[in-house]
Amino acid sequence: MPGKLKAKIVAGRHLPVMDRASDLTDAFVEVKFGNTTFKTDVYPKSLNPQWNSEWFKFEVDDEDLQDEPLQITVLDHDTYSANDAIGKVYIDIDPLLCSEAATVISGWLPIYDTIHGIRGEINVLVKVDLFNDLNRFRQSSCGVKFFCTTSIPRCYRAVMVHGFVEELVVNEDPEYQWIDRIRTPRASNEARQRLIFLMSGELQRKIGLKVLEMGGNAVVGYLQCFDLEGESGLVVRAIGTACTLEKISTFPATATHPNNSSPSKDMKEPGFGEEAPGVPLSSGPPTPLRAQTFSSFSPSKSYSRQSSSSDTELSLTPKTVGHLCHFCMIPPSPFCVFQEYPFFTLTAFPPGFLLHVGGVESARSVKLLDRIHNPDEPETRDAWWEEIRQEIKSHAKALGCHAVVGYSESTSICEEVCILSASGTAAVLSSRFMQDGPLDTEHRFEEVVSPGCGFCHIPYDELNIPFPAQLTYCYCCRRYKVPDVLFTTIDLPTEANVTGKGCLIQARLCRTKKKAQGEGNATAISSLLPFLEYELHTQLMNKLKLRGMNALFGLRIQISVGETMLLGLASATGVYLTALPSPGGIQIAGKTPSDITYEQHISTMQKKINDTIDKNKELYEINPPEVVEEIIGSPIPEPRQRSRLFRSHSESSDEVSELDLSHGKKDAFVLEIDDTDAVEDIHALLTDSPTPAGFYSCNTEIMPGIQNWTSAIQMFTSVRVFRLNANLTNQGLNKIFSDLCENLLKSLYFKLRSMVPCCLCHLNFTVAIPEDELIQVAVTAVAMSFDKEQPLENGKQSGEKTLIKGKHRPLKAMSGIFPPHLSFLSSLSPSLSLALLLSTASSLEKASPLPEGRSRSLRSNRSYSGSSVAVVKMTPLSFIPGAKIIKYLGIINMFFIRETSSLREEGGVSGFLHTFIAEVFAMVRAHVAALGGNAVVSYSMKECVFMENPNKNQAQCLINVSGDAVIFVRESELESTSVQTQSATTHTSNATL
Amino acid sequence: MSVELDVFVGNTTIMDKEVYQLWLNGYTVNDAVKVRIEGGVMEECEASAEVLLSDTMDQYRTFQMCERLLHHPAKLANQLLFQIPPDRQAMLIERYYAFDDSFVREVLGKKLSKGTKKDLDDVSTKTGITLKSCRRQFDNFKRVFKVVEELKGPLVENIRQHFLLPDQLARDYAAIVFFANNRFETGKKKLQYLTFQDFAFCAGQLINNWTLGAVGKTNNMMEDMDVDLDKEFLQDLKDLKILITDKDLLDQHKSLVCNALRGKTNVFNEMEANFKNLSRGLVNIAAKLINAKDVRDFFIDLVEKFIEPCRSDKWTSIDMNLYLTHYTNSAHILDTFKHHAVWTRYMGVIKSCILRMYHD
Q1: CB A715 to CB B6 under 8 A?
Q2: Cβ contacts of A723 on chain B, cutoff 8 Å
Q3: What is the DSSP letter of A296?
Q4: Which of A285, A622, B192, B341 is the most buried (most CB within 10 A)?
């Protein structure tokens, strides 16, 4: 019985009129937790009641504290008939259970009704007294911190990354229970909302238990999803990465630690090796396992697996070990070996953690849903996911990798068919968390040599390539082999050497399918999937080449299934990695070059493509330092073979043509125009309209080439539903789908034109087929303005290039030191930041004046936290430009249902959804503000299920959003300090290192 | 094939000033798109008509959702649904409550009733302002009127605080409320040459000098202190009649004024000839103001009895100023005239109103 939950109802405002006669309301409040309910007095005849209630106290188990939400219901008192409900507020008290998060929830929260939306606000105070018994506290999973952020949160240091945690819980969907036939829509919606709240709480608690068992104290990259399986039930599942995090403490000594403020490798590095000496790094998790204490919590079989499979064969295979030794002389990290699934939901890593990237991998399976008979034993669903994870694991192995990073799972359900998908990036990770001092320094030396290109070096055995890939020596270090293109699901590592800017690349595909039932339907879908995936891949590859780029980051392929079609949408951010060879052009070839007009057609097309490539190279400032190649003249041991490079696809080309179709001096990528698909591909290529001037876009956290962000950010969600005509061909469908996405993007650019120059970051597209002949596309992203003058990279870099050409890429090193989100630079005058830059360049590698200045800002800002009032920023990114996150207040995970039976009166479907999304934003902001926060980072809308029935004038929508509530402080007021101290600190930090 | 649903929601609500104005002006979505296309926004931003339509619909929807908040501007600041920066909020409110001078001239002094609202389509046809916009402006007037009707204290300040309007706009609304309350006639043909700003100026003069609130007689928190004229003062105005009924006084007054003006103006002869008529006109207006009906005709009387005769004699504004100054001051020198305070209070307003109204 470790907790006392206390709640006080202060006041209400803007309540709706519930009594027509008086135009007023007699409101009172019910406060419910578990099975206990308290009531306030009735505050008669007011739309702004002042209850000022006593403290309602609930004495509860910590298990309940984690599972249950506090439920506040506002009602209108009616003497003669039943009291009318005005609306409800669910409060997740989880943030209060962690000592490092929020301490009180206090503020105005919207009163929400599933039929009427927001109906006024209520002011509440909620506190939790946990008994100060550390041991008992440790036994529950209270206190395990959850983060949606897919990197190490900014005010923490990762002491250890334990690995993958997963869990799922199932239940019957109240919407499909017999009782639903006799209860009101409101009651049904509320039952659903409450159930999902409970299930999320339970899931989080169970995951927390696993984390504690592994010895961790936090889950990073926590991804929770719902599968609305209809008749067969409701599944809530979650994955995440268990970590041991240590708060970078508030006293000045560690405040100087730049870990949280600067992702630059030089600054961060000590945080992992040297500055955490107190932590027992050498052997296993720091906290001893206490598995037996958890027996009462029904250990799901997925974590009983864990112990049995510790001798996983992965890293023991001679091939892998040999390879690893050969390339980096680091044995595979032991902590990964202990994991059954060496998966990481992280997409960004502490510098030096990610050694090599093998490539993207994905696995899908099509399942037929059946009723979940026993909710307590969700074996089937568990087994399904296990299958897929095994497949992913084996893919990774084939790529010579022992880990999968940027891992995610998703589903698409249509009637009784369900596609389960998992994807990730095969990778080799450093084991430095487990190493002792001397070895560590050795590693660092090794990485200094290749900080910006190391991750590109192939992890697999050159002689035993799992697929036909063209290998060359790395264009940066000339020592290791790299592939010709690299696809990944992770963010661009901050230390990566990139030429030019990046851009969003999308492949879109629509395929019709016959209507079918059950088994037959599933079979049809499974047989279509590989083609879909193959074509998406080809499209991506073509579009990548068309932009003159050679790598994709943040790749996310979404396949959505409907009754008569399959949709595929792949989004990624293309970049030119300096380490990889320059991509060849796209060569169009006709198989029957007999007709002259045909040849002309081909050559005009070819010209168009070549022009586009050139234009794109200019647009994205891709001018790889070809000259350097010659001047450096580093010995290339093996002449690169450039004559036989024609593959239509990396995974599926058996035929290797001997023709030389090189475009310029580069390798060409041949598109044979004879089959209709290729024609279609080319059209798709050329119809992608370029982004308007002043706009850039990416779906990752960081946009390479843009650095001086201003503080202007605008997060938005846009949803479109498109009705199709019946009887469309594949090509027609494709075009419609592609246009839909393109037009949506165009609309976004237009909407946000006042922010130019600006970059749309973390563009996250979600597609769905809500019903036959409908396509729904939802986008959530953030637009961030930046300063046009970029003295850092443009003028400087090109100007200086000729001067220091022969040296060892000092400019690259600099761009590594100033990662994009150090936007406070924008507040300095151009000349000043230039001076700053030069001083950094001279002291190179280790020293930077910046962290010291920033840490000062941290100290003096500490007192100032809640002064910025109601404004709550929201962003899908893990950071806020020009600001420093000083505290994480807890995870926000909210689920809402909205329903209407007066669709026309609410402005039709658009009016209805517009209001609902605005309401969801408002509720997220209000809850964050009540926690004492002023921003949500890593925000995402994970579910937006919209259903309509215009004939009945009805619509229903379900939205699930999540993110991390934080407190941030602006850096702007401290620019003077950082300027003053810059030269001094350069020397100090030099001295200390 | 059609877009069934299309929404865009920003964490900070995005509002385009230009589209807002089109919405306020009562344009339909399609008309607004046309105007925007002509404005060249498409070339500027590489957009298509489709994009423009989607954006316009979206913005219109946002404005419609905001409209109920704009009816109570104070709510805009503490509502949670839309995150709108304070400067944007101020812009939204100011523009929502802005009105067309040509529209307000049509309804100024009319009762803000349902009957008047029904006639708005005529006003719309006459002014070329869309009916939708007319209705919004009319409803604004009515809303402000209703709210301040029940409030105590100074009118302009009440409007400014309750509707968060900038000072000038609050003053204009005070004038509208004042005119509506006293039902001043402004629609007659002879008054057509006057602009709303002329009337607003006069209203300001009346509010500041002739109401209960003006003299500070009240304990500063009386109902309608700024809206109703000071009855006591109106009563006292009757005493001024002596200036025209007493023959001696009238002649004395005339000679004082004429002596002062001789040689200083080109229209001296006309002035001299007309003095008695003009003086009778002004004093009679004063004497009749105790009747509500005559209050309504205040402006038409000023024009008929004073401004028109002067205009036909081709007085300049300088002549007018000179005349009124001496006319006012001379009365104080008259032996038997005792009502100096009332005279000053009356003539001060009359002089500035006439000077403002004396133009083509």
Answers
A1: no
A2: 1-4
A3: G
A4: A622
- Tokens matching residue B277: 């008529």
Predicted TM-score (pTM) of the model is: 0.82
pLDDT of A593 strictly over 70? no
Q: What is the pLDDT of residue A846?
A: 33
Per-residue CA distances from A858 to A431, A852, A884 (Å):
31, 10, 8
Structure ipTM over 0.90, yes or no? no
pLDDT above 60 for A832: no
Chain position carrying tokens 């192995």:
A397
Report which of A736, A767, A385 is spatially closest to residue A560, judged by C-alpha positions.
Answer: A767
* Residues shown for chain B: 360
Q: Report the alpha-carbon distance of residue A144 to residue A133 in Å, rounded.
A: 16
E runs forming strands in A345-400:
354-368
Cβ neighbours for A141, distance < 8 A, ≥ 6 positions apart: A66, A204, A205, A206, A207, A208, A209, A211, A212
pLDDT reading at A212 higher than 90: no
CA–CA separation, A43 vs A20, rounded Å?
A: 17
Q: Do B8 and A725 touch (CB under 8 A)?
A: no
Is B77 in CB contact (< 8 Å) with chain A?
A: no
Which of A750, A873, A909 is the best substitution to test chain B (most B C-beta atoms within 10 A)? A750
Q: What are phi and psi of A508, to 5 degrees?
A: -130, 140
pLDDT digits (tens, 9 = 90+) for A729-738: 888 888 889 8
pLDDT at A521 over 80: yes
Query: Which pLDDT score, from 0 to 100, does residue A101 have?
Result: 73
Q: Count Cβ atoms within 10 A of the Cβ of residue A592 and give its class: 0-12 exposed, 13-18 middle, 19 or more buried.
A: exposed
- From B91's Cα to the closest Cα of chain A, the distance in A is 17
Rounded Cα distance between A428 and B79, Å, is 51
Residue of A118, A724, A748 with shortest CB distance to B81: A118
A106 has pLDDT over 90: yes
Q: Which residue shows structure tokens 């563009």?
A: A763
Q: A722 vs B7: CB contact, 8 Å cut-off?
A: no
Cross-chain CB nearest to A750 (options B9, B51, B62): B51
CB proximity list for A197: less than 8 A, separation 6 or greater: A68, A69, A90, A92, A895
Which residues of chain A neighbour B8 with C-beta distances below 8 Å?
716-718, 747-748, 751
Neighbouring CB atoms inside 10 A of A182's CB total 8
Residue B2 touches chain A, beta carbons under 8 Å? yes
Question: Cβ separation of A918 and B6 shorter than 8 Å?
Answer: no
pLDDT, tens only, A453-463 = 878 888 877 76
Preferred mutation among A736, A751, A779, A906 to probe B, highest tally of B CBs within 10 A: A751
Residue among A400, A209, A417 at smallest CA distance from A321: A400
What pLDDT is stored for residue A858 in this prediction?
Answer: 33
Residue with tokens 């694991």: A393
| Set of chain A residues whose Cβ sits within 8 Å of the Cβ of B83 | 871-872, 921-922, 925
Whether residue A917 and residue B7 make contact (CB cut-off 8 A), yes or no, is yes
Q: Which residues of B touch A769 (CB under 8 A)?
A: none
Q: What single letter denotes the amino acid at residue A108? A: W
- Asked if A713 and A761 count as a contact pair (C-beta separation under 8 A), the reply is no
A591: CB partners within 8 A, 6+ apart? A672, A673, A674
> DSSP string of A468-504?
---EEE-TTTSSSEEES-EE-SSPPPTT--EEEEEEE
| Cβ-proximal residues to A608 (8 Å cutoff; 6+ apart), any chain | A686
Nearest CA in chain A to B45: A750
CB contact B299 to A (< 8 Å): no
Mutate to test the interface with B, among A108, A714, A910 (most CBs of B within 10 A): A910
Q: Which residues pair with A57 in a beta bridge?
A: A6
